[in-house]
Amino acid sequence: MSETEEKGVVRSAPQDVQVGDTPAVPTAFDQMAAQASAKLLEVAAIIPAFEPRRSETTQFVKKYSSFSNEAIRSMIAAIDAHPIVNGSNTFNVEKARATLQYLDAFRPFVDQAGEFEANLRFSYLLTKAEAVAEVLVTYQMMKGLGRSPAAAGVDAHAKIIKRDLRRARVKPVKAAPPKPQPK
Question: Which of 31, 70, 101, 142 gives 20 to 30 Å between its CA and that of 38?
Fold first, then answer.
């Protein structure tokens, strides 16, 4: 693979890349991934109210986070205008103001992190796609070489590669037949 740079990212493997299943010694890529992971943990540590996703709170978040931030602003305005509305102290106005500040401040970061995640996933898949494209070109050449007596053994490798080129097939989910309507 040729070495090209795009936005400061080297698209070729470091010199110590090992071929095989699981290398005994961490590769340069292993070290880079560990370093990037550690940096993400550092970022998470400086975000106030950072909570990892948990099954216990997922439904709660889905249920209430879909409402507009304007509902919070409107409630603050209502209580400021008519304190009797919050006579039972069910709504913490100061906490709500801090929540709006948090939401306003971190919204651009959340968007940026989402874009980063999409670009990281794309980079990951692009790297794989480039290697697979080269595999397919070389495999086509191997099939031709395998017919030549001078290239004994190539055909056996081509058969192994053919086996390994299978794509994961996802079976389509059949829609349930509609239930008959009672008359």
Answer: 101
